[in-house]
Amino acid sequence: xxxxxxxxxxxxxxxxxxxxxxxxxxxxxxxxxxxxxxxxxxxxxxxxxxxxxxxxxxxxxxxxxxxxxxxxxxxxxxxxxxxxxxxxxxxxxxxxxxxxxxxxxxxxxxxxxxxxxxxxxxxxxxxxxxxxxxxxxxxxxxxxxxxxxxxxxxxxxxxxxxxxxxxxxxxxxxxxxxxxxxxxxxxxxxxxxxxxxxxxxxxxxxxxxxxxxxxxxxxxxxxxxxxxxxxxxxxxxxxxxxxxxxxxxxxxxxxxxxxxxxxxxxxxxxxxxxxxxxxxxxxxxxxxxxxxxxxxxxxxxxxxxxxxxxxxxxxxxxxxxxxxxxxxxxxxxxxxxxxxxxxxxxxxxxxxxxxxxxxxxxxxxxxxxxxxxxxxxxxxxxxxxxxxxxxxxxxxxxxxxxxxxxxxxxxxxxxxxxxxxxxxxxxxxxxxxxxxxxxxxxxxxxxxxx
Length: 450
What we know:
Blueprint: H1 22-30, E1 35-40, H2 44-61, E2 65-70, H3 76-90, H4 92-95, E3 103-108, H5 113-119, E4 128-135, H6 140-147, E5 154-156, H7 164-168, E6 172-175, H8 182-191, E7 195-198, H9 206-216, E8 222-223, H10 227-231, H11 233-239, H12 242-245, H13 291-297, E9 302-307, E10 327-334, E11 339-346, E12 356-361, E13 364-369, E14 374-379, E15 387-390, H14 424-431
Helix pairs in contact: 2-3, 2-5, 8-9, 11-14
């Protein structure tokens, strides 16, 4: 769905800090615009919202307004509105160019923080209108009602069963569905003329990404929120495809430099940026709930497809039952395309202080022990701890995995063997390609540290 507001071809909404220092990135993004606004935001969903905020502001004011996103503190929405009002008051010629249009947003899937976090803040947004939400979750209707989304805009769907008419009503489709449905929903948005905004992962397998790349070629179709600046693999992989990017413009939607979730709870005020030290490869960012689990299970050479009991066991979201012995049956796909059963078993209580999960497949079992004071990954067939990490210094942090302390024993993955099960996106992720260079002192809230 095209709008008169869309004048700058945006293929990838990658942070302008991809190859630049923070200060250079902010300067480059602002260059060429008569008006530049540095908007302040915090949290994953805030960054997804800020991407939409930027699109909505461009829809309303054209390209004379650039929105910068910083992760230091909240308040970006009111700042954006106040700035927009000041432009209308000061610049008569700009106000006369305002297009009476709101950015039309559709959301597919409510399975991540970003998609759920979009609904309530954007309910009465001046620039963005939620025109539809599609979900297969049995709890979706209640969640949408709580967020104030009109009942008529909810569409209950099965696995991937989203009609073309749902995509066609929107300028932007936010894809928040599980990873195995990402390619289908992203392609559905692009094929029907919408811009697809997607969170991780973009596509679980190389063939999925190849099809996505083919469909997006020559179109203004893909936007990655800030997670893909942080994780880098999708940006890296797409950038390495000259036929994909030829003749198109990469426009940075964010000046995001690092996520600071939980920083106020860290001892000594240390920053909660997801990263590895240069000695550990540099630049890789891990989320305990999803990526560590996903990469560890790749030792089996499988990618998870789904779970019969997803509302209790969410492998990618890090949600598990509290009771010991709870079991969930997952469907998984091998690199040869064969589906196999995989069992996830809570070996101990899933409380933050004693979370032990056992992944059992036809080739053996893998135990992920998140108990304090260290995190361990152990294939039970050999009994050898393949990865461990000291987390004793972070007693209050229950979600993030800091990999800057201890990396003992062999690497988590043999990238030439087990890594073949991963897509090029995950391979780049596992290698730590194109991550932020240097230590945390190099990145300090958008400014070069002293």
